[in-house]
Amino acid sequence: MRPRRTGVDPDAANAPAITAWTKDYWSALHPTSAGGAYVNFLMDEDQDRVQASYLGNYDRLSRIKQRYDPDNLFHVNQNIHPSAP
Asked: Where do the Berberine/berberine-like domain residues begin and end (predicted)?
């Protein structure tokens, strides 16, 4: 059975090959990236990466967050911080 090309394989013995394939795949695609990210795929990235994922929209979203959630009640996951009033 061929290993799946998703970066995951149930057989731990394939981990080095899957890791190498995943890194090579990322390296090949990264130059064509627009620079954003799908925020639901982010894990423990810092706030800079979250901001970069939204490209030029983060400041606008932060102002909206200030208007509708100034106390940052909805702060779980990749949080958009409310802008300063």
From this structure: 37-80
